[in-house]
Amino acid sequence: MNAGPADSPLTIQPAIRTENVCRHYAMGESLIRAVDGVSIQIARGEFVALLGTSGSGKSSLLNLIAGLDRPTSGAVIVEERDLAKLSREQLARHRLRTVGMVFQSFNLIPSMTVLENVELPLRFAEVDRAERDGLARQALEQVGLGKRLRHRPSQLSGGEQQRTALARALINRPKLLLADEPTGNLDSRTGTEIMEMIREFNRSLGMTVVMVTHERPLAERYAGRLIFLADGKVDERISQSLAPEAASEVQP
Amino acid sequence: MKSYDLAELAVRNLRESVLRNSLTTVGISVGVASLVAMLSLGIGLQQLATRRLVKSGLFDTVIVTSRRDLRNFGGDDENRDRPAPMESPVLDETARQKMEKLPGVTEAFPDIRFITSLAYDDKPHLTMVAGIPESAKGTDAFDGMQGKFFSGAMANEAILQKSFAAELLGKTPKPGADEPPVAELAPPLLGKDLVMRYAERTTVESSAGADAATYSIRSKEIRLRIVGVTDLDPDSMRGALRARVMLPVKLVESLHVAQPGAMRDSTQAASKDPTYMTVSVRVNNPSQVQAVEDAVKKMGFNTFSMLDATKSLRRFFAILDLFLGIFGSLALAVASIGIVNTLVMAILERRREIGIMKAIGASDGDVQKLFFAEAGVMGALGGALGVALGWTIGRVINVATNLYLKRQALQPEQIWFVPWWLVLGAIVFAIAVSLLSGLYPAARAARLDPVQALRYE
Prior knowledge:
The complex is a heterodimer of chains A (252) and B (457).
Chain A: E1 14-27, E2 30-38, E3 41-43, E4 47-51, H1 58-66, E5 73-78, E6 81-82, H2 88-97, E7 99-103, H3 114-124, H4 129-142, H5 158-170, E8 176-180, H6 188-204, E9 208-213, H7 216-222, E10 225-230, E11 233-234, E12 240-241, H8 243-250
Parallel strand pairs in A: 4-9, 4-10, 7-8, 8-9
Antiparallel strand pairs in A: 1-2, 1-3, 1-5, 5-6, 10-11, 10-12
Helix pairs in contact in A: 3-4, 3-5, 4-5, 5-6
Chain B: H1 3-16, H2 18-55, E1 61-66, H3 93-100, E2 105-111, E3 113-120, E4 123-132, E5 146-147, E6 157-161, H4 162-168, H5 182-189, E7 193-204, E8 214-230, E9 245-248, H6 249-255, H7 262-266, E10 278-283, H8 289-298, E11 301-305, H9 306-349, H10 351-359, H11 364-407, H12 420-446, H13 450-455
Parallel strand pairs in B: 4-9, 6-8
Antiparallel strand pairs in B: 1-10, 1-11, 2-10, 3-4, 3-7, 5-8, 6-9, 7-8
Helix pairs in contact in B: 1-11, 2-9, 2-11, 2-12, 9-10, 9-12, 11-12
């Protein structure tokens, strides 16, 4: 089985490392501790699922790793850079170059065609128009949408929209793919299709994948490791490495 | 983001809510149109006034008087620290020739006028006679003249002022009644002769020494042909002031008519040249009046020009343009509030979209520039549309005014003018105002928190 560039998750620099990271925010009078002292390590090429109930802080943690949000305290080190110390401009570059994201609600821009949505990150990366077009078509071929370039998101099925979002996430060849409930709005068959695709990227491109989900069976089926969060903290008791299957996947 | 992409995205976004954005753009264009229409009328009126005034020949003339003459034209406080009148140079032929050689001067002619008797049909009439230069022909002072201008610089010809013509024909109206029109007075007079009696001044070699000049006065006569009758008001500033009979200035000079001031000057004049009360200096171009005035002042003479008067006229137009501009800009200011409103609304509407763009890697700067570009595009479109609209409004006003003038049997006038700098300036101004209006919305969009924006449905 192809394990990609990841040799062993334990011996090399981790892709993501958090050190006692906290994200607190005030809501009216009370202080919400969305993420409250989380220290985790995710190796390059790993496929990790963040599990937990609604409000457990899993999405907040994902946003911190994505550089969409800043920690109140602690460190979030992604690809050897502490995101807490980056400027707003540098964080934008991190989101552009290092991270690809997919969301439960797809988050495509409704006024743009499939092709335009996919090439939008390339505009921010200042890639030339001609090159942009080629790259976007190629990415859409990869997700099996080569024939629906001129459609608007509203003309697509949920699965097709999520595949468009996947193509967009991959267009800048990021090292990390962060997925926030990617199958939450899809029926189970389409959800499986998307998950297969994500697994394929994890394996063939060696991308590190962090997926937030509340569906344990889904996580168990695709992820190499499960991290459970509750009340903003990692629940060590039930977090587990799915050793037999995961081992077979990362160590040929 | 590259500027081309930026513009493309901006136009695409504007087209998404086409009604609102077009209304905002129309708002800008109305603002620009009012600005352009107001200013083009202001500029047009100013040009009309300037054109008329230049044609009048008053604005390219500097009137020079001697400081010896205590009755200075424009005798004001600035003369106080100058030499006493008696030490000032004499305004004589030498001085006149010097002035004529100044750069930018077309001609310098003495203002010769005297009261004398003219006989028509053997009946003498006493009136003021003045010399006028050839160049007076080109001004509009003789627009309403019947007959012709002088056939030559030395022609024994005269142009009569209407009231004198009426007097010659015995048609002087009773006080309060209207004078008969020129067209009625001219035919019986044109081609007829007048006999002018005048006092000739001749220099007599004196035994008292080279310094002193002695004059003798002799009575002489000259026969003049009437070539024209003008309705020029003798009391107006135009043409020969208060004179009712005009002769070619060269002819008058050659007659050596004794002038009122000659008696006084003759006691001090070092030369035998004739001296003048006033000399009119005409310049090529009204813009050179100031330079020529300064040069003549340096020669030790008093000057007066209508430029002094035009200064206040120009100030008036500057203020008029300013006010028209402010009123025109008011509409644009209102329109700029429309831009702020539209863009702030767009932020609310596109909050999620901004969140998405940020999530996939757009920097604060990218988002800010995008909103800026949208404001700029609206400004550019509104500006271009506004210039076209303003041009049309100005044109319609012009046409309507001319229709009115025509109905009043008056000559049509161009009261509206759109210079190229106004076109360019209006568009640039519209873009600048729009960008200024986009400043706050763009900054607000850029600072949007992506996590919250993505949560927004």
